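so my prof wants the structure for this chain in the tokens format not the other one, which i didnt know existed until like an hour ago. anyway here's the sequence
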Amino acid sequence: MNEFNTTPLTHLTGSLCKVMGVEPPKNSEGVIDTLVDYVFEKTDGKQIDRVLMFNPDAIGQWTCQKYADKFASVKEHAPLELPLLSVVPPKTPVCFGSMYTGASPSVHGILHYEKPVIKIDSIFDAMLRAGKKPCIVTVENSSMSKIFNERDMDYYIEDYDGQVVTKALELIEQDKYDLICVYNQEYDDVMHRSHPNSKRSQRAIDHYSSSFDRLANQVAKCWTNHNSLIGYAPDHGTHREWYLLGNHGKNIPQDMNIFHYYGVIPSTDKKI
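here's what i got, hopefully its the right format
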């Protein structure tokens, strides 16, 4: 892998807003035409009114390619594979800051590994202005538990990945949120302690896929009255350092190139 992807991660927020009929955040840089066209083709031109975003930390494009069999269930639910380019530096709070504001790091203000509250307009602010209800379900002390705080929305902070997924399943069943962002971090944790191809890292990939499978099935079961979009949306990739442990944060294809996966679950209510 020697080349960089060309579609920027900063175009995701604008795309999600467009398919939901929401005015995007003020600093949002653009849209991903491939994603927008795919969604409207699947819904016969109708807007999406529910979005479930699963954010597995540190899954790079090369990981998806090397362990393609581990992503089979992800692709069954979310067959649109989007090669995207993360932001510099590819560190978790920097990347999620750009993913959910649509703005470059120099604009949203997180330029290295720190977790301040982002003050500029975000997808969550855009949803609230449009009268929609977003929420974040995440691990305690993670970037996603901090950088989008201070909005008039709900935050569910859990001990670790398993509890996050359990809570998200409950929230999907309640069917009261228009946008649910679900963050998991096991792969990032174990690859830093071992390396990106270790047995523990491979198990973490499996856990991510299993969690996404459960969430997607719950959407299909509980959101039947909605046109729903589901996304498997990591923040950055990884590499192995000379001292043998896994890491990320360099402007190299291994860290910067990511795959996102998206799928549409149309409403079964003919009135939609």
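also thought this was worth mentioning. The mean pLDDT is 97.
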